[in-house]
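ARCHIVE CARD
Drawer: 12
Card no.: 0347
Subject: one protein chain, sequence and derived structure
Cross-reference: see card 0346
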Amino acid sequence: MADEQPRYRFRGSIKPTAEVKRPVKAYRNAATDSATGSKATAATIDIFDVIDSWGGWWGISAAEVDSALADLGDVETLFVRVNSPGGEATEGIAIANLLRAHAATIHVTNYGLAASAASVIAIAGDTLTMAPG
């Protein structure tokens, strides 16, 4: 059938391109401990895409999250921001276990959707906050 649109993993007929890809974003931020006035190390990681073992253009893989965590180095607090329709269950479990194994205190905020495999990631933190809506 020549009229049929091609199908892509978790994206339907949307061809993976640079515009579609929302990579794992991880960055260090500085917070000040109000009690001591000293700098506490904190970082944020964004999981704003489909959970997929292929990674790259196809979504966020556990390997990409592992790499992002390694790039951050030692932090005391890690803020994880999630907005994902989910994806592969085993990859979500692997990402959740990476977060659980991290030495930092993990604060997860769901900014819209944490469905399917992303729900497993969302409950891996020490705290979970749901944005309004």
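Annotation on reverse: Residues 25-30+39-130 form a domain with the 2-enoyl-CoA Hydratase; Chain A, domain 1 fold (CATH 3.90.226.10). Residues 7 and 52 are 15 Å apart (CA to CA).
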